[in-house]
Amino acid sequence: MTAFWVLAPIMVIAALGILFVRKAVHAALLLAVVMISLAVLYAALDAPFLFAVQIIVYTGAILMLFLFVLMLVGVDASDSVVETIRGQRVMAVVAGLLLGLVLVTGVGQISLGAGVGLADANSGGNIQALATILFSRYVFAFETTSALLITAAVGAMVLAHRERLVPKPTQASLAAQRLRDYQDKGTHPGPLPPPGVFARHNAVDTPALLPDGTASEASVSRVLAARGTVRSAPALADDIEELQRQIGDAPHAGRTGSASAEEENL
Amino acid sequence: MSVTPYIVLSSILFTIGCVGVLTRRNAIVVFMCVELMLNASNLALVAFARQHGNLDGQIAAFFVMVVAAAEVVVGLAIIMTIFRTRRSASVDDASLLKY
User: Signal peptide: which range, if any (chain B) (predicted)?
Assistant: First the structure.
């Protein structure tokens, strides 16, 4: 019972957390806490097979599926707080409290006794005993399960399928489109110029310089231009005189002095 | 060992799942709360299996898990389809049948 009294408060707190957290990802992680704790409780209740299945199927497969869909839908798709039916939240909480009260008092009042325990049923091993029942008394339900799983797989494929509305663009059609753009709008048909490569900076946020010394707008990404993080290429050369003053070497003093100084630094 | 505490815990978790389904607006979180209710019922099944000393309850819990897995696959695919067409995962936005 130690496992139960340790895990029960954790499970209730995590389950309550699902009601109150704003982000769906946090709700999924709290649900994982509840499910793993449940797996431990199954182990404590002499159900080692269900312990493994709970971990593998629920925590491993179902919760990963939840997280996957959350990623596709967008993590920031959080709850709206607007009530469409007035007073629905309060009514739901009151109804939930009443249901919980009825269930807990009802269950708490019956005396179940000490219980038989599964030592007898599990004597030949839990998994062997489960298999014996599953493939004899419940074999029809087990076979029906296969139909259910196939239906679910086909259903998910049909629902996730997306009909292609336009034909797939081929390399030839893309090239033709590029030249048509050149003919109609004068768009350059070749690749865009690469970003500027300078001695002191060659990241993608530096524009390339045109022959007349102006920066080429096409050489930096439009995203960087929209964010305003494009560097000004001439500004990279602004502090050259300052650096020359710092190393104490006039521009026309000859190269031998600075070359030997560089060798000493190396 | 009495299993009454397990059944009480199972009832509490089921109630929390119920309230979650009724109050949350995000379809995915509503789905998580349904999973919580299924898990709570599983706990009751396993606890009663121990109480009665036979394994039928564990088999039932196993079938519940299989059905839940199939249900999650189809349900999440439906949520994805709704999100793709309506750009929203809120249960209030899927209200075309009301009009």
Answer: none
Which residue in chain A has the smallest CA separation from B48?
A115
Query: Cβ separation of B39 and A34 shorter than 8 Å?
Result: yes
Q: Is A154 on the interface with B (CB under 8 A)?
A: no
Touching check for A149 and chain B: CB below 8 Å? yes
A133 CB contacts (<8 Å, ≥6 apart)? B55, B56, B59
Residue in A93, A103, A129 closest to B19 by CB: A93
pLDDT tens digits, one per residue of A106-116: 988 887 777 77
| CATH 3.40.50.300, applies to B4-88 | no
Domain boundaries, chain A: 1-76, 192-247
Testing the interface with B: which of A11, A16, A45, A163 to mutate, by most B Cβ within 10 A? A45
**Alpha-helical segments (H) within chain A:** 2-20, 24-44, 48-53, 63-73, 88-109, 126-134, 139-160, 171-185, 222-227, 240-246, 255-265
Q: B68 to chain A, minimum CA–CA distance in Å?
A: 9
pLDDT digit string, tens, across residues B64-97? 999 999 999 999 999 888 888 887 778 877 777 7
Q: List all residues of chain A from 13 to 32 with a beta carbon under 8 Å from chain B.
A: 15-16, 18-19, 24, 27-28, 31
- Topology of domain A1-76, CATH: Four Helix Bundle (Hemerythrin (Met), subunit A) (1.20.120)
**ipTM of this model?**
0.93
Q: A96 in contact with B at a CB cutoff of 8 Å?
A: yes
Question: Domain spans of chain B?
Answer: 4-88
Q: Which of A152-161, B59-68, B79-88 is the least confident region?
A: B79-88
- Band (A262; pLDDT cuts 50, 70, 90): very low
Sorted by sequence, the CB contacts under 8 Å of residue B60 that are 6+ apart come out as B45
